[in-house]
């Protein structure tokens, strides 16, 4: 009887997992895809694709190389003149700690959330990163750039390989826009300028755009939450005024 119950539970769990997978695929391919098309007609959605780990590391926003990396829910598109890509990312580091039973290994998040990458509206050659304000004002390979906006300085630290270029990129109006964008996301943002593109890292503890058999698709709170996240992500281009082309950028 015990063996039969265990086998029954295994079969039941397998069936639930299978149906959850089917429901999740339906939710992504039909509902999330429709929302994205509604918000941006020139966008495409690939649930199984994501941003490469090399792009994540080249942003220089994260000091640790991940031991486990996953990226999904890739959105590619164009808003007016600005091309962009965006996806969920979960990067983790494997760590060890000593216990009375020996060494125990566990996973710690390096980053969990969204990466949003867009064509920047000015040409530049250097590398500039905008990190959260911290006590330590040192970053290897870059010097700190002190900005003139005290509100901006309370929130961010700017590091760059080119001080003049950093001020060319982060103008007084851009600082105001960054602060406004930062307030749109509960856990704040960090920003990287590389290869004439801008990368915005947005922490988010939840795994978005998912559905399972335990939640009804008629539950509007889930749908509203996903809609709000997508809307906030796709508004980044306008929030940072990336469609205003200056000098050599068309």
Strand-helix topology:
Elements: H1 2-39, E1 43-46, H2 53-58, E2 68-79, E3 82-99, E4 102-119, E5 128-132, E6 143-145, H3 150-155, E7 156-160, H4 163-169, H5 172-183, E8 190-194, E9 197-203, H6 220-234, H7 236-239
Antiparallel strand pairs: 1-2, 2-3, 3-4, 4-9, 5-7, 5-8, 6-7, 8-9
Share of helix, binned = 25-40%
Order of strands across the widest beta sheet?
Answer: 1-2-3-4-9-8-5-7-6
Main sheet record: 9 strands, antiparallel
Mean pLDDT comes to: 87
Tally of helical segments: 7
Strand content range: 25-35%
Q: What is the molecular shape?
A: globular
Helix and strand run = HEHEEEEEHEHHEEHH
For the secondary structure, the number of strands is: 9
Unreliable runs: none
N- and C-termini, Cα separation? 73 Å
Radius of gyration, rounded? 21 Å
Structural class: alpha+beta
